[in-house]
Amino acid sequence: SDGAPGPGHWDADAAAGGLVDLAVPGGAFSGRRAPCLKNPVLGPGVLQAIRIFHTRQPSLAPIPCVPEYGGKVCLGLIPKEFFQFLYPKTGVRGPYVLGTGLILYSLSKEIYVITAETFSAISTIGLLIYVVKKYGASIGEFADKLSEQKIAQLEEVKQASIQQIQDAIDTEKSQQALVQKRHYLFDVQRNNIAMALELTYRERLHRVYREVKNRLDYHISVQNMMRRKEQEHMINWVEKHVVQSISAQQEKETIAKCIAGLKLLAKKAPSQPVL
Amino acid sequence: MNENLFASFAAPSMMGLPIVVLIVMFPSILFPTPSRLINNRLISIQQWLIQLTSKQMLAIHNQKGRTWALMLMSLILFIGSTNLLGLLPHSFTPTTQLSMNLGMAIPLWAGTVITGFRYKTKVSLAHFLPQGTPLPLIPMLVVIETISLFIQPMALAVRLTANITAGHLLIHLIGGATLALINISATTAFITFIILILLTILEFAVALIQAYVFTLLVSLYLHDNT
User: What interface predicted TM-score (ipTM) does this complex get?
Assistant: First the structure.
């Protein structure tokens, strides 16, 4: 039955001084649980300190609750029940007549003697009644306001605590909702990565293609150049040999032929006017 | 009823049994113990008054002086409530008895002085000589300060007794004057009655003030010695 006490109980073991654990029913004052109470000097003081907190009912008999407001009184002294008690026999004016009669009887028989004290009594009681009638209600309201302030303070603490917990609950709920939507983030990231991979692949593919084409172009251009060089070389060789093959005799004959041709043309031409 | 003026100050006894002890213990009934968090109006007002008074009275003390808080608060509550109850007609006020006031004043004063001498001997002895006295006056001043120190408990007790007793006596006398004047001249009696009312108001104030003064002086002696 030991261990952490319930939420409504005062956790005495946590407090300094090792006071009694009140969660133990009926065993609060046994020596095993309250060694401090064995000390004859401090025991009663500890007992007084314990009694402040009511964790058990104040009495074991089934007595009715203490009423919140006092009973109604007449003249500030006599409870109304007395008037009700006399009403069936003497009516409404009965108690007042009784009171007046008693006062007059005691005065006339000098049971109550009028002395100096009578006047001081009149003055004191009169003053008290005046003060009570005038300021009684406001003092009562002031006392109620004190209690209300105390309750309001505690209520504020309670409300602040509730608000804090409510905020924590809301934050937790929103966090949970966010966790539900986390997969969007992952999808986006996945897509990004896929696109990046695709891009890199295509880029490399293109580069490979370019490199290969470069090499092939190089071979082609080398071949073309070779062919061109061969062609030029062949043409030069042919020209050279043709020129070499033209002997001096042939050259003279060719030139004479050309001159004769030109003379013929010259003969034919002068009949045409020069424009 | 009352044979002479001073009969109301005699220690009350009923059929030979001294009931003055009951009368002295009676005011404690009027201060109920606050048992709940939110109490009834009486306890709430008393709590508020005690908080107000204790805060104001213990503000000047250091940690050591504040251990006297319970004593001082009990003192002011007891003297105040006893004085106020004594204003009711036909009641007995214990604080009119010099024996009781001496019984309150001497132990409290002695407590403060002994505390001072025990923990701060040099400072307590230094209180016998005010600062800045010229050299030739020192012996006389030490004697005067010693006398003033030993008069303190007497003054405390006699002040309280004299004030309360004088107030009660005045009320009694003026009440008697009113009674005697009623047959002679009603107007004068009425004026005297007005004086009586004013005096009663004064007595209510005096009752509270005397309690306060007593406690304040004890607190002052304590402050000097802690």
Answer: 0.83
